[in-house]
Each structure stands twice: as structure tokens, then as C-alpha cells.
Amino acid sequence: MIKTKTISAGSASNLDIQIARFLNYQISSSKVIDIKFSMTGDEKTGEYCAMVIYK
């Protein structure tokens, strides 16, 4: 079964930390298929998002 998890943060560095936490602690025994990234706004007021696709 393929699953997805959307993660968002106010900065790129916070997004990186949240993705690492999710990969290391939530799905450590699963296989990551892909990670898609997006960003809205600008560097000061933007929102950074990632969608982790795993099974």
C-alpha cells in the first residue's frame, strides 16, 4: 500500500529537520519512493512543503 505524508514549515531549514525526523522515526522500516517539494510566497513570508511518498 502506497502512503503519503505532507510536511510544511516556515523555512527551508525547518522543513529539512521535519523531513529528517519523519524519515528517521516514523517510517524507518518503510521504503521511500519519492519526495516532492513546493514553495509559496517569498523567502521571508513563504511556506515550504514536501510530500513524502512511501510504502
Characterize the structure shown.
This protein is α+β, with helices and mostly antiparallel strands. The chain is 27% helix and 44% strand. A three-stranded antiparallel β-sheet has the order 1-3-2, with helices on one face. A hairpin with a 6-residue loop joins β2 and β3. The N and C termini lie close together (6 Å).
What's the arrangement of secondary structure elements?
Blueprint: E1 3-9, H1 12-26, E2 32-40, E3 47-54
Antiparallel strand pairs: 1-3, 2-3
Element order: H for helix, E for strand: EHEE
Give unreliable regions as ranges.
Answer: none
The counted number of beta strands is: 3
Strand order of the largest sheet: 1-3-2
Report strand %.
35-45%
Q: What is the structural class?
A: alpha+beta
Largest sheet: 3 strands, antiparallel
Mean pLDDT: 92
Distance between the termini: 6 Å
CA-based shape: elongated
Determine the number of helices (DSSP H or I, runs of at least 4 residues).
1
Structural Rg: 12 Å
- Share of residues in helices: 25-40%
Briefly characterize the structure.
By secondary structure, the protein is of the alpha+beta class. It is built from one helix and three strands, in the order βαββ.
